[in-house]
Amino acid sequence: MIQLKINGTTHELDVDPNMPLLWAIRDVVGLTGTKYGCGLSLCGACTVHIDGQAERSCVTPVSAAQGKAITTIEGLDSKVARAVQSAWEKLDVVQCGYCQSGQIMSAVSMLARNPRPTDDDINTAMSGNICRCATYVRIRAAIKDAARALA
Amino acid sequence: MDKTHLVDRSRREFLKVSAAAGGGLLISLYLPGCERAEKAAAPGAPIVFEPNAFVRIGTDNTVTVIAKHLEMGQGTYTGLATLVAEELDAAWPQVQVEGAPADAGRYSNLFWGPVQGTGGSTAMGNSFEQMRNAGALARQMLVNAAAGKWEVPADAITVRDGIVRHDASKREAGFGELVELAAQQPVPETVFVKEPDEFRLIGTHVPRKDGKEKTNGTAIFTQDVKLPGLLTAVVAHPPRFGATVKSFDAARAGKVKGVVDVVAIPTGVAVLDKDFWSAKQGRDALSVEWDEAKAFKLGSEEIMGEYKRLAAKPGAVARKDGDAEQALVKAARTVEAAYEFPYLAHAAMEPMNCVVKLDAGGCEIWNGEQFQTPDQAAVAAAVGLKPEQVKINMLYAGGSFGRRANPQSDYVLEAASIAKAIQGKAPVKLVWTREDDMRAGYYRPLYYHRLKAGLDQAGNPVAWQHRVVGQSILRGTAFEQAMVKQGVDETSVEGASNMPYAIPNLTVDLHSPEMGVPVQWWRSVGSTHTAFVVETFIDELAAAAGKDPVAFRRALLKDHPRHRGVMELAAEKAGWGKPLSEGRGRGIAVHESFNTYVAQVAEVSVHQDRSFSVDRVVIAVDCGVAVNPDIIRAQMEGGMGFGLSAALTSAITLKDGRVEQSNFHDYTVLRLDQMPSVVEVHIVSSAEPPTGVGEPGVPPIAPAVANALYAATGQRFYQLPLQLKT
């Protein structure tokens, strides 16, 4: 049995310890806000927070996430997260929306550590998250908007 | 917008127009679903007012707009809702959107005939009147209901922000209070729609209807569907196009924990499990022997070689003005160029997937459904049902870029075939891995173009010969009859055969060789390659003539005011002509696709190591009436960024028939750090009927960047992705 603490709730899962966290979250626990995009840590759609750090759940075995605090898009509840999500809505960032959970998880993690990111900081923190709709201009603007709101 | 414009594109059988005094436009209309309003509600059923197939109003004041088009990011749910809310005078927050079921009778794409589907940037254009009429009709019935209830004349009643009012008697009501009475009203034969100066929502910023749920993770995509007993299927596909299963050994797959079934289907072998990861483990453990007797075994290089040979001979004529051959002989000087384009994958963020439930009652599908009635018919035929027994639930699509409107219904049929193979014992969610998606084909075709042009003594172009070689997208599909004429597939030459520059002697011809690589439309279709060729070659001619690229185009666009309009606007906003520092360059491209006109000016920097960046892009767009200006801006930004992937980095290549790329490490796409830091969008004010914006932002960026790199370095570019010589 694997114990996972997701969004504050502990789940007992009868799964292979090698199962990637992404599929435990989606197919076993049933939280579908975290998305599958590549399976190889190349696109960022599966980004979650593990002990506050943005991690790619598609390449994180459940065994490595045991005992840690896992936060998914459904569990976001910090001041930073609220500022990011509200900036995202205000600027109508989303298009197809499929990558946006991952984008938001990456943005929240960055802003929590670095409340006043430069353009280079944003490039570094966000370039692992692909958006095929290329909403990048608005992602940048929303991060800056959230940073201003938090200042 | 004058009255003719409101009606001239339209389904004349539906609309008759007469001018009306007192504002608005009186129309008599046919809207599907109007008979529903007169139907008596079943006893005990909640009271709803459903005046036609597009609007439903509940006693709780909620206005539900039924969207016949797929929301795949382009903003159509917001756009369609804007049109209804405008004429209904609803308050924006009370409006919600629901996807329509598959039903060509009610929900066909009016530009396509009796077919329901989304594509060709047609959603706004074909819906502009229909959805406004739907809202106007609902409004009129609410007004009539209030007039009856309050015993006042209907024309003394106003509606604003979801409140129906009679000022003289100071009475007012929300829509919900009038629902029961409205549902009993006769359906009017005529209604008023607004004149443009009466618009309150059209032309303003309204928040996207899908913004919140796509920001908090609650939006449901096909990948997220949950059903009791649902099994996930992962399929082993052949390594080459055209290969089939000879035999397979499921023993090892069967040992994977949880694997429920392993079944052969026409496209491979499917492994089913309760979760994706276990199903994939099972799929990876399968051993399959493939029959490659009919497999396609050429590589991209051989294909390009074959195309170059073909290009030596004339093809099917797509356009012929004057005599280009003769004019070239007489020209003072000639310029020649040849261009090469690779296959491209759509690579939507949500890999293809589809949920199918097959049981005694029929078939039910959950899908980011872009091609409702073709998919419905294909599935019905495959599982032995009538089309109306196949129910389709349209969910959000995590991108598509054309891929989910597949004329062969490929992945939808694959899902149905798995459900059939297990005799419907469980609902099935087919999930492609990224690798499956990348290697499944249905690519933007590989193309080769050859051009020759002639200039006279004064530098005016007098001849233009353009030959295109590439697979036909439409051959062998249901669209062939309508869109392939005299051997010319319109989608192969659009953007070239209708190029706007005034050149008296001009030919465009086409070879459409057969190749075993499945091909399909890719956001902006023919213009993905023709715009690059036309807009870089015209730039090359301008340079040969010693003229400024904008001035050269301007002189040749005398009869194309909308092309000229966007070009002048983009050039002005970009500061065309202002000097740039060493190593920087500015380039322009202008292109019409799907009746929307877009010009882009790109500014690039070439660095010491010969890498380059695109720093700023100024975009001007003319798409007629700007219904949702912010969505137009978003589509221009995103379309440009999508086109920039192909300009800078993406290519699918084949070797011995095998696709060489598999995931985002080798099929690279634009990332945030490559997005220009400044992207400006300027919308031309227009009274023309609205046209689409999902695709037209894509074509101009690659030629604009190539022309900017030429300005910075003197190098011309004849291939995508762009490579700067070291």
Please describe what this structure looks like.
The complex is a heterodimer of chains A (151) and B (726). Helices cover 41% and strands 14% of the residues of chain A. Chain A has helices at 21-29, 62-65, 79-90, 100-113, 119-126, 136-150, and strands at 2-6, 9-13, 47-50, 53-56, 69-71. The longest helix of chain A is centred in the last third of the chain and has 15 residues, at 136-150. By secondary structure, chain B is an alpha+beta fold. Chain B folds into three domains: 3-198, Aldehyde oxidase/xanthine dehydrogenase, molybdopterin binding domain (Aldehyde Oxidoreductase, domain 4, 2-Layer Sandwich); 222-293 and 352-431, Aldehyde Oxidoreductase, domain 4 (2-Layer Sandwich), CATH 3.30.365.10; 300-344 and 443-713, Aldehyde oxidase/xanthine dehydrogenase, molybdopterin binding domain (Aldehyde Oxidoreductase, domain 4). Chain B is 28% helix and 25% strand. Chain B contains 19 helices and 32 strands. In chain B, strands 13-14-11-21-18-19-20 form a seven-stranded mixed sheet, with helices on both faces. Chain B has a five-stranded mixed sheet with strand order 16-26-23-22-17, sandwiched between helices. A four-stranded mixed sheet of chain B has the order 3-4-5-6. In chain B, a hairpin with a 2-residue loop joins β30 (654-655) and β31. In chain B, α4 (123-150) packs across α5 and α10 (372-383) packs parallel to α11. Chain B starts with a helix and ends in a 13-residue tail after the last helix. Mean pLDDT of chain B is 94; it is low at 1-23. Chains A and B meet through α1, α3, α4, α5 and α6 of A and α7 and α18 of B.
Précis, in short:
Chain A has 151 residues and is an alpha+beta fold.
Largest interface: A-B, 58 and 64 residues
The CATH homology group name of the largest domain in chain B: Aldehyde oxidase/xanthine dehydrogenase, molybdopterin binding domain
SS summary, helix count of chain B: 19
The secondary-structure element order of chain A is EEHEEHEHHHH
Largest sheet of chain A: 5 strands, mixed
The helix-and-strand class of chain A reads alpha+beta
Output mean pLDDT of chain A. Answer: 98
